[in-house]
Amino acid sequence: MSNTSPHNPPVTVAAQPFDYCFDVTTTALVIIDMQRDFIEPGGFGESLGNDVSLLSAIVPACQKVLAAWRRAGGVVVHTREAHEADLSDCPPAKRDRGNPGLRIGDVGPMGRILVKGEPGNQIIAELAPLASEIIIDKPGKGAFYATALHTTLQQLNVTHLIFMGVTTEVCVQTSMREANDRGYDSLLLVDCTESYFPQFKAATIAMTHAQGGIVGWTSTSESLLSALTP
Ligand code: C5J
């Protein structure tokens, strides 16, 4: 894919393993699964036995990046891990695995776990999508599996993706790998993604930019913000 359009000044972000260059008009900010189910008590994340307070710490940095990206006029994509009410798109193995306190589709404090339209399935208020922004409901961990994301991005001539969201080693990493295989150049903002397991986050960041950026690039919100407003 081409790196920059000849009509727009490229933006260069200090990143690992080397600078990440993009053009705002061909780049989307992709915010993975910042939904109440993962960030707030009573949702899917907590039902699996996780400490959800770890994840809410990234919200202020995500807000700053989202505000700057909106000012720059870039495409914004929000994803939600979300199943149909009849769970027809939820493989039994996904629902049955482990021993969660609440399974996908069960009724919890924020409605049915990981089901479309339920209160817990909404993006947190701090990062609420604007009407003009793209929302992708995804039945899998990856944002490209069984969704219109790739087609939508192709229609918008998007070639570069900047990732934020949760959890780093599950839905974020899976989506970045899917993007990589489809030819996108992806950047992960390390202070705008979080895991319930710090060691998994660290490993994901390392394996993303290893081997010359085998999956993509990593950087910080500060580096992106200073590159957007030189
Ligand atoms: C998980 C996600 N962790 N959004 N989902 O099950 O990463």
Question: Could you please describe the fold and organization of this structure?
Answer:
The chain starts with 10 loop residues before the first strand and ends with a helix. Helix content is 33%, strand content 21%. The chain has a six-stranded parallel sheet, with helices on both faces. The longest helix has 16 residues, at 198-213. The chain has 230 residues and is of the alpha/beta class. β5 and β6 (111-112) form a beta hairpin. It is built from nine helices and ten strands. The model is unreliable at 1-6 (pLDDT under 50). It has helices spanning 36-39, 44-47, 53-56, 59-72, 92-96, 149-155, 168-181, 198-213, 221-228, and strands at residues 11-13, 20-22, 27-32, 75-81, 107-108, 111-112, 134-138, 160-166, 185-194, 217-219.
* Count of β-strands: 10
Determine the strand fraction and express it as a percent band.
15-25%
Order of neighbouring strands in the sheet with most strands: 7-4-3-8-9-10
Bound molecules: dicarbonimidic diamide
How far apart the termini lie comes to 26 Å
Outline type? globular
Q: How do the helices and strands follow one another from N- to C-terminus? A: EEEHHHHEHEEEHEHEHEH
Instruction: Please outline the major beta sheet.
Output: 6 strands, parallel
Structural class comes to: alpha/beta
**In terms of per-residue confidence, which ranges show pLDDT below 50 for 5 or more consecutive residues?**
1-6
**Overall pLDDT level:** 94
Q: Write down the Rg.
A: 17 Å
* Portion of residues within helices: 25-40%
